[in-house]
Amino acid sequence: MKTSFEFLSTWIQAHIDDERGASLVEYALLVALIAVVCIAAVQALGGAANDSLSEVGSAVAG
Prior knowledge:
The chain is mostly helical and about 60 residues long. The chain has helices at about 5-15, 20-60.
């Protein structure tokens, strides 16, 4: 029968070797990076799109 120390040691070693946590962190970093890029793109292109649409609206209105 295993002692509590052996059980704890085995349990910790099994969870240290588990790579699911590392994959989750990598995916979270990728999602955060994609979000930052999307926000930057919207801010950069938003002003230009607003100007273009305002010009078209003014031309249509008369």
